[in-house]
Amino acid sequence: MLDELLTLDDCERVARERLPHMVYEFLAGAAGDEATMRWNRESYERIRLRPRVLEDVSTIDMRVTLFGDEHSLPLLLAPVAYQQLVHDDGEAGSARGAASGGVTFVMSTASNCAVEEIAASGAKLWLQLYLQNDRDVTRDLLARAEAAGVRALCLTVDTPVLGTRNRQARAKFALPPELPTPHLDVAGRDRLSIVSGRREAITWSDVDWLAATTKLPLLLKGILTGDDAARGLEHGAAGIVVSNHGARNLDTVPATIDALPEVVERIAGRVPILVDGGIRRGTDIVKAIARGASAVLIGRPYVYGLAAAGPEGVARVIAILREELETAMALLGCASLRELDARVLWDR
Ligand SMILES: Cc1cc2nc3c(=O)[nH]c(=O)nc-3n(C[C@H](O)[C@H](O)[C@H](O)COP(=O)(O)O)c2cc1C
Hints:
The chain is 42% helix and 11% strand. It has helices at residues 8-18, 21-28, 35-46, 90-101, 115-119, 135-147, 166-170, 186-193, 204-213, 226-234, 256-267, 282-290, 300-332, and strands at 64-66, 69-71, 75-77, 104-107, 125-129, 153-156, 218-223, 239-242, 273-276, 295-298. Strand 3, helix 4 (90-101) and strand 4 (104-107) form a beta-alpha-beta unit. Bound molecules: flavin mononucleotide (FMN).
């Protein structure tokens, strides 16, 4: 099975064969007519690379340091809710795959496994936060996360309400009542698990509250504009994740790789900028870094890996990207991530 998985698209194909239709549509689908989801891919495909020959690429250094921690690859696993839908091990399984693949796992607030169980995988861990009405729920989760060794927080700021997810609605997606969501209160589960239209009242003052409540580096996930990124820094953000939530929220916003340069220009190196959405190849990682990202995240692909082959499938996805990135860097004539800048892009 594992040797059938040569690309991230192979993992999706196998996952699609294995998963119930409703679950596959929940994972694969996006918002509205899914224009942004197509653009997330097409924009990467349109960017052409500019190689340099006869550079010394006998060793390739793919390491990056974020908030004092060294990452072996500029890649993290993005927060994806409800992973027991695809495999009994859920997020604990993905985290084991992340540990053996040597990358950081960003767990969702809407995970089916508890933070301690995920941390027991040995993976380096970040926590994605959805703020819930009951601040005590968030305080409790933060305390448990810090005790479990979580290294950074990603506050998701692009989801005051769920997007119009027609595809999952058509497939009659519903969260099975028996699946646990240990870090969501009742209202939070209701808001995030069905197309409820319920709104979450989260504003900049909540960012101030969170920044004052935690000692961990706080990233804002789901920013697309230079203005919001700059404002985020004024409110205590230590990093920005340029994301359109895998195109699941507001359809027809730009591809994240096209939104990235505006944010990079505005932030001007003050904090790290990460990007996610549509990354499926090592060459995509090259392009994101060349446009100014410090690292990237993948969402759906590793969950397809989990569905296809459990924790080993997740590790396989990471290994594929590691090898593709190393190969792309060698063929570009770049021995380290620092060399991936506008000079590796054909159209600057
Ligand atoms: C099924 C699914 C569930 C998700 N759940 C969350 C979540 O709980 N919190 C969050 O911040 N983002 C969530 N996301 C968004 C991802 O973190 C990430 O931004 C997106 O998947 C990246 O795009 P990609 O899937 O094309 O790699 C989810 C995405 C998917 C596909």
